[in-house]
Amino acid sequence: DAKTTQPPSMDCAEGRAANLPCNHSTISGNEYVYWYRQIHSQGPQYIIHGLKNNETNEMASLIITEDRKSSTLILPHATLRDTAVYYCIVRVVGYGGSQGNLIFGKGTKLSVKP
Amino acid sequence: DVKVTQSSRYLVKRTGEKVFLECVQDMDHENMFWYRQDPGLGLRLIYFSYDVKMKEKGDIPEGYSVSREKKERFSLILESASTNQTSMYLCASSLGGTTYEQYFGPGTRLTVT
Q1: Over the stretch B88-110, which tens digit does the pLDDT of each residue have?
Q2: In the Cβ-directed half-sphere of A9, how many Cα atoms lie within 13 Å?
Q3: Contacts of B4 in chain A (CB under 8 A)
Q4: Nearest CA to CA, how far is A72 from chain B (Å)?
Q5: Which of A12, A56, A76, B78 could form a Cys-Cys staple with A61, CB 3.0–4.6 A?
Q6: Dist CA A2 CA A89 (whole Å)
Q7: Across residues B31-55, what is the average pLDDT?
Q8: Set of chain B residues whose Cβ sits within 8 Å of the Cβ of A95
Q9: What is the band of A2 on the pLDDT scale with cuts at 50, 70, 90?
Q10: For residue B4, what is the nearest residue in chain A, using CA coordinates?
Q11: 8 Å CB contact of A104 and B42
């Protein structure tokens, strides 16, 4: 089972920031937080990941709370093309074996509206 | 850019047929994965491979086998297709180790009639 909890759906106005929350209260010290998204009829797309520090790249920012029990993905200026299902995943750090698996939950369906 | 390609976007097969799904990646990635995605169940890992000729079972390997003879190619085989294998099949690849992101192909929607 997925180790994360996300709201099933959210709406966001085009041009505004989209803040997607994720709860991972049982996260272990060696687990990273990953975010992927899946646009309709496409394969999932990697967005960002982090361990305990906040991270930013060209797509998004990831804010992880100090106790690491929750995080927020921020899309600073959402566009209609950001409409997708967003998955928050916790993942063990290691090499080989089944530790590298991505376990996708149900995610959050983000609808960006004009 | 990493490119992961899958042999077909849509495939229709009959019950009992042997089905081959091919996946090719062009970034020299060590790891390759096969998932299936079903409504309400999310993505589930079928098999993965972390090296040529190496494979490990995922969460739902029953009814499937895999082959990795070359680093860039990972094949999923349905020995005798059944209707409950109708699904979206997604291939992914990543660098070795488990901290690297996985890159997904576009998916193959398989219908077994």
Answers
A1: 999 999 887 656 788 999 999 99
A2: 3
A3: 43
A4: 19
A5: A56
A6: 7
A7: 90
A8: 96-98
A9: low
A10: A43
A11: yes
The pair of three-digit structure tokens given for residue A37, joined into one six-digit string: 């998204």
| CB environment B89-98: b (16+ within 10 A), e (fewer) | bbbbbbbeeb
Residue B84 makes CB contacts below 8 A (sequence gap 6+) with none
CB-closest option in B96, B101, B107 to A46: B101
Two tokens at A60? 């998004």
Cβ atoms of residues A76 and A61 within 8 Å: yes
Mean pLDDT of the B76-82 span: 97
- Tokens linked to B107: 């998916």
Beta strands in chain A (DSSP E): 9-13, 18-23, 31-38, 45-50, 55-56, 61-64, 70-75, 84-92, 108-113
Contacts of A1 in chain B (CB under 8 A): none
What average pLDDT does the segment A30-56 reach?
91
